[in-house]
Design a protein that fits this description.
With about 325 residues, this protein is an all-alpha fold. Helices cover about 70% and strands about 0% of the residues. It contains 11 helices and no strands. The radius of gyration is 20 Å and the shape is globular.
Length: about 325
């Protein structure tokens, strides 16, 4: 894809904006519904002393030790980050797809490449938001690991300021390298989703049924999450910032840091340690993605219909 291939009228289009808004609203709604499951997953990833148990058991412990609202701790910064992240991703994905395909039929390889490109843009733009929301989500938590230091952030902006002052501005991009590797997660997810959607439509321009959107969204996310979960664990540890290792800012040092954390995790907990919290993650992320795609399809279709705009080829 050379720069000459792009038509900027398609990149900055009403259709791409509709897709971005629908994706953002769908993801925020879905995450709010299943947010406690993400809380359980994050605790299992960063607190090495907490034993891996079933998701309901972990949530029961959190509520008992920290209060009824503890599973929703950090909801606002997570929702802000998720809204921005999905807006950027959906906008990039559909605008790049419209610019590249220009009415041609899409293929899984093209969907994958567009998904990776969209993911890289998304990571570079929104990583600081995810670093802050990880810190806020874990603030006040009761950890089994006594080495974890408590933090005291009054809000999103205060967290930004304290992180920059105490750790340097580069700390806002902690976990960027595994995040860049993890662009494969949404890229594989969208490749599978778009591929299954094309199979269901079989060349007929129609809207997906609610159950169809839900099921193919669930399948796509389940595959993508299972394949990339060890890197997601490293990403969470790096964003939390209390792993005790300095990974450095260079690409080589980042790679060494990621490999060190992966190897150290295996040494301490065995290979299953790389997948600690996977049950909670799959339960949360599959249900969230399935509901998100269902809402996204319905919101986008309704908006195009109300505004009298024919749904573009890029969404087929």
């Amino acid at each position: 894809m050379s720069s000459g291939d792009f038509r900027f009228a398609e990149v900055f289009s009403y259709e791409s904006l509709v897709h971005a808004m629908a994706g953002a609203v769908g993801s925020v709604t879905a995450m709010t519904v299943f947010f406690p499951l993400d809380t359980a997953r994050l605790r299992l990833q960063v607190d090495e002393k907490r034993k891996a148990r079933s998701t309901p058991t972990i949530l029961s412990e959190i509520v008992k030790e920290e209060g009824l609202l503890a599973p929703y701790r950090g909801w606002f910064p997570v929702i802000c980050s998720l809204c921005c992240s999905n807006f950027v991703y959906f906008y990039c994905f559909h605008s790049l797809k419209a610019s590249w395909l220009r009415g041609l039929k899409s293929t899984p390889s093209k969907d994958l490449l567009i998904g990776i490109t969209s993911g890289v843009v998304n990571v570079l733009v929104t990583t600081p938001l995810w670093v802050v929301n990880t810190r806020l989500k874990l603030q006040g938590a009761k950890f089994r690991n006594a080495d974890i230091r408590p933090t005291n952030y009054s809000g999103i902006m205060d967290a930004f300021v304290q992180i920059v002052e105490d750790e340097g501005i580069g700390a806002l991009w902690n976990g960027t390298f595994p995040s860049l590797l993890l662009v494969l997660n949404p890229a594989v997810q969208f490749m599978i989703y778009e591929g299954l959607k094309r199979q269901l439509k079989k060349g007929v321009h129609r809207e997906l049924l609610s159950l169809e959107a839900f099921m193919i969204g669930a399948v796509a996310k389940a595959v993508a999450t299972t394949v990339t979960y060890p890197l997601q664990t490293v990403q969470s540890i790096l964003r939390f910032g209390q792993h005790g290792e300095h990974t450095g800012r260079s690409l080589l040092n980042s790679l060494r840091g990621v490999m060190h954390l992966l190897i150290n995790r295996v040494r301490r907990h065995g290979w299953q340690g790389l997948f600690k919290g996977l049950e909670a993650k799959l339960l949360q992320t599959v249900l969230t993605a399935a509901l998100m795609f269902l809402l996204y399809e319905k919101i986008a279709s309704s908006t195009f219909r109300v505004m009298g705009v024919k749904r573009p080829v890029s969404s087929r």
